[in-house]
Specification:
The complex is a heterodimer. Chain A is built from two helices and five strands; from the N terminus they run H-E-E-E-E-E-H. By secondary structure, chain A is mainly beta. Chain A has one domain (11-89): Roll (SH3 type barrels), CATH 2.30.30. In chain A, strands 4-3-2-1-5 form a five-stranded antiparallel sheet. Chain A is globular, with a radius of gyration of 14 Å. Among the domains of chain B are: 66-246 and 289-314, no CATH class; 551-797, no CATH class. In chain B, 57% of the residues lie in helices and 3% in strands. Chain B has 25 helices and five strands. In chain B, a hairpin with a 2-residue loop joins strand 4 (775-784) and strand 5. Classes of the chains: A mainly beta, B mainly alpha. Chain B: Keywords: Cytoplasm. Chain B: Residues 342-788 form the NAA35-like TPR repeats domain. Chain B: InterPro entries: NAA35-like_N, Naa35_N, TPR_NAA35. Chain B: It is found in: Cytoplasm. Chain B: Belongs to the MAK10 family.
Chain lengths: 92, 797
């Protein structure tokens, strides 16, 4: 796996991948990476937001919120499913 | 708050691998601060993205009170609370149509959301079972109420689970019907916003089932021993029932032009009952408020939502009732009036004056209903089985150029002398030409009930369609006449070109309407107003020449054929079956066709021509007034504004673009426009004050002439049978209102001219004091949408 000092993938290779982004308030948004800028701000399309169900916690509540911009400072982690990971990193 | 992104989370069956470092370290490859994007993605679209953790853009950050979160739509409520909820929903329905969306209005009601979610969840069962008001998510949650034992037999329980539920079913179904209408004929975000938060508004439930549900509930209330408030509940339920009955107008078949049906107006009690119910409900004072938490922004946080957080939107009760009342009244107005239509002119004038001019004030749903009401799925007009778009097109032509247009009735007898091969070619080509004409006529009909901005766009498109049609019909008519001697002749024996003449007439009308409608939409800058009126005056001059020239001659030619040519033809035949046949035909011409031709000719001469001449006189007066204003430098129509970055010539071509592609009549040149200012000789006049005063006399004469003509027309509309028979007989006649408004505008102009004379008089010693520094031009809305008031005011600097 690549390290920060030795990146193996270019940003355009991540474009079109379905990313699962955890944000600071505990919500997770999953969507297709459509735009990324040099500061790490993401634009995801077809986003599904997962949050704690306010009516019956700790159940999960999902909803479609469309096109979403995720500022870098709000991001905790970014992950992908195993298939996407294999597709991305097997190209090396 | 818990984190949902823990690896090994049992709720997440698919393993996810963290790539945070890989993703962000890849950014080091970006040079020149470039943005990396998907190939097909347009960055402009990114401007509508919602930003996470931005309180202004992120609906996930909406804060709700515990009361709002825990609202239990299944809990029994008092009768006053149920009335209050239903009352608020009746206000939220028109609020939605007032440039808002469902999640901010009707769907802000937790009862509606719960019912529609249950409807989507329970796929089987009766309507009542599927549309439960019990919130499944509250069951077993920390918010579930355990304080009281709920009796399902109690009145309060029944009021929610029977009355309120039926009311919401009815309301939701009506929203569903409205959404269907919107999908067909209305424009998203112009007329209506159709966002539904992913909820289905009872699409699988028939209107009949909904009406049954409402009727059963009304019967239940009547049989119950509710002491006070039952009357209000029933009125609210009945109002929703009447709303759902609105789409029954689509099944009405209007017996157009049938003498036997004249005066018989079918009963539309449900429409007048709807209005009465609104009047009744709007007069009640509602003291009780809705249960806490019943209306909130909950749905914006909870359901599919691609927009930003917004407060719940509700218009004032007075406005809400006015909107619902207007819906019933508009539908009743056009349904009743459409049943009075006796001839084609009435139908055309009904669309032009009753519908097109009032589209701006008409309730949005009423406009949608009208479009589906006037042209049905089977392409009949107003559901009349004998009148389809096809024969409507032909009658439209003959309504202008008179009956007996040879080319429209090509059959084997009229083509008997033509070679078989050519006969087929002609017939096929005619078929194609009629189809093209039909689509243009269809296009024109769809314009009437569109919103005013779309009307402008559709009219602009129609110019090109009619222009193309004119070219093809002209060549077809000439060919038919040259090859087969088919086509109506003028009294002189020349070819009449009846269909092309109709097409040209319609095109000119569309060109005029497009220009004047732009005045109503305030598309033109002050310095362009002269240009538009000058151009319209030119177009009206052309249409009057066409109407009094060729079209009049075509009708005269047809009359002459019946009165002279055809009888001569009969005389040439010896007695026998052929002669007898022609005699019968002559009888038909005399009794049926001739009166119609005379009627069309008289209507064209007395009404159409005079109304256009009256308008032209008014426009001439305005143009002279504006030329004086321009010449004195108050507003420069030749050079445009001083701060302009481009030339007036460029602005001329830009403004006239919609008309520039028309072949005939060609667009006047910029030089002709500039020369129009020289016509009055004001530029070279040695004494501008005196010249202006003499031109003021011209203006006054023109205004007087125009007013007299309009007043005479108004008399004819009321008193002259030849004219008033061409308009739907209605106490609130829109055509009368239309012309009365123009007369009021003429009076306003006369006042402005008088005011301007005072300005001239006060500056007669130094006319140069009348300039853009001391005076300004102001254009303000007036009585008629085509003629705003043009006033000259002193500036205060």
């Amino acid at each position: 796996m690549a390290s920060a000092s030795n990146p193996s993938l270019t940003p355009d290779q991540f474009i079109g991948s379905n990313l699962r982004v955890a944000i600071k308030d505990g919500r997770v948004v999953t969507g297709i990476l459509t735009v990324i800028d040099p500061f790490g701000n993401l634009l995801l399309s077809n986003v599904i937001e997962e949050s704690e169900d306010i009516i019956s916690p700790p159940g999960i509540h999902k909803r479609d919120i469309g096109l979403v911009s995720v500022p870098r400072e709000t991001i905790v982690t970014v992950s992908v499913d195993t298939n996407t990971h294999r597709r991305l990193f097997s190209k090396k | 708050m818990i984190s949902l992104d823990q690896n090994g989370d049992p709720r997440e069956p698919h393993a996810h691998i963290d790539i945070t470092n890989e993703l962000f370290s890849s950014l080091s490859y970006i040079s020149d601060n470039k943005v990396i994007k998907a190939e097909m993605f347009n960055l402009l679209e990114g401007t509508r993205a919602l930003e996470m953790l931005n309180p202004n853009l992120d609906t996930g950050l909406i804060t709700l009170s515990d009361e709002e979160i825990a609202f239990d739509s299944g809990r029994p409520q008092s009768i006053d609370s149920v009335i209050a909820v239903q009352n608020r929903l009746l206000h939220l329905l028109p609020s939605w149509l007032n440039n808002s969306s469902l999640p901010l209005t009707v769907l802000s009601c937790r009862y509606v959301q719960t019912l529609l979610e249950n409807y989507a969840f329970f796929r089987d069962g009766s309507l009542s079972q599927r549309c439960s008001l019990v919130d499944r998510r509250l069951q077993g949650s920390q918010w579930q109420h355990h304080d009281t034992v709920i009796s399902t037999d109690s009145l309060e329980y029944q009021l929610v689970h029977k009355v309120l539920k039926s009311f919401i079913i009815g309301l939701a179904k009506f929203v569903g019907i409205t959404l269907d209408i919107a999908m067909n004929v209305l424009y998203e975000e112009e007329d209506i916003t159709t966002r539904t938060a992913g909820l289905d508004f009872l699409g699988e439930i028939s209107t009949v089932a909904v009406l049954d549900e409402l009727n059963h509930t009304i019967e239940w209330i009547l049989a119950s021993d509710i002491e006070s408030g039952a009357d209000v509940l029933i009125s609210q339920l009945k109002l929703v029932l009447r709303l759902n009955q609105l789409n029954s107008v689509f099944s009405l078949s209007v017996p157009l032009f049938e003498e036997s049906q004249k005066g018989i107006t079918p009963s539309f009690d449900f429409l007048s009952d709807g209005t009465e119910l609104v009047d009744k409900l709007s007069s009640i004072e509602y003291n009780q408020s809705c249960p806490g938490g019943a209306f909130s922004r909950f749905i914006q946080l909870d359901r599919e939502n691609k927009t930003i957080p917004v407060e719940v939107y509700e218009i004032a009760p007075v406005e809400a009732w006015k909107s619902i009342r207007s819906l019933f009244q508009s539908v009743q107005g056009f349904v009743v009036n459409s049943h009075k239509i006796c001839n084609y002119n009435q139908l055309i004038n009904f669309l032009r004056y009753d519908i097109s001019t009032s589209a701006v004030d008409m309730n949005i749903i009423a406009r949608g209903i009208f479009q589906l009401y006037v042209i049905r799925d089977d392409r009949t007009i107003l559901g009349c089985p004998n009148i389809t778009v096809s024969n409507y097109s032909i009658d439209n032509i003959e309504n202008v150029v008179g009956k007996n247009t040879d080319l429209l009735y090509l059959d084997d007898s009229s083509l008997s002398s033509v070679k078989p091969e050519l006969k087929h070619q002609l017939k096929d080509r005619l078929q194609q030409m009629l189809q093209d004409l039909e689509s243009c006529v269809y296009h024109n009909v769809t314009v009437h009930a569109s919103n005013v901005c779309r009307q402008q766009q559709l009219m602009s498109k129609s110019l090109v369609l009619w222009d193309t049609l004119q070219v093809s019909w002209e060549s077809f008519e000439v060919e038919c006449f040259q090859l087969c001697k088919i086509g109506n002749e003028l009294p002189s024996g020349d070819l009449g070109m009846a269909v092309s003449s109709y097409v040209y007439f319609t095109k000119l009308q569309a060109m005029i309407d497009l220009a004047l409608n732009g005045v109503n939409l305030e598309l033109y800058k002050d310095f362009e107003i002269y240009l538009i009126y000058w151009y319209v005056a030119y177009l009206i001059q052309l249409i009057v020449e066409h109407l009094t020239g060729r079209i009049d001659l075509i009708i005269e030619g047809k009359i002459a054929y019946i009165e002279k040519t055809h009888p001569k033809k009969i005389k040439k035949f010896k007695a026998g079956p052929k002669k007898q046949q022609l005699k019968e035909l002559q009888l038909y011409y005399q009794n049926k066709i001739l009166p119609q031709l005379v009627q069309t000719r008289d209507y064209n001469r007395i009404f159409l021509t005079n109304s256009l001449v009256a308008m032209n006189n008014f426009l001439d007066a305005i143009c002279v007034f504006l030329m004086i204003i321009s010449n004195l430098g108050i507003c420069d129509f030749r050079d445009g504004p001083k701060s302009s970055l481009t030339s007036m010539e460029d602005m001329f071509h830009f403004r006239m673009k919609p008309w520039s592609s028309i072949g005939v009549p060609s667009l006047p040149t910029y030089a002709q426009y500039i020369n129009s200012f020289k016509a009055l000789g004001l530029d070279e006049a040695p004494d501008k004050f005196q010249s202006a005063l003499s031109l003021i006399k011209v203006i006054k004469n023109k205004l007087h002439l125009s007013k007299s003509l309009y007043q005479s027309l108004l008399k004819d509309i009321v008193n002259d049978d030849r004219i008033n028979s061409q308009f739907v007989q209605d106490d609130n006649s829109k055509v009368v209102y239309w012309y009365e408004s123009i007369v009021k505008c003429i009076d306003s102009y006369s006042e402005e001219v008088e005011k301007f004379v005072e300005i001239l008089e006060s500056n007669k010693n130094d006319i140069s004091q009348i300039n853009s520094h001391n005076y300004k031009l102001k254009i303000i809305k007036s009585h008629h949408r085509y003629f705003p008031r043009v006033t000259v005011e002193k500036t205060f600097t």
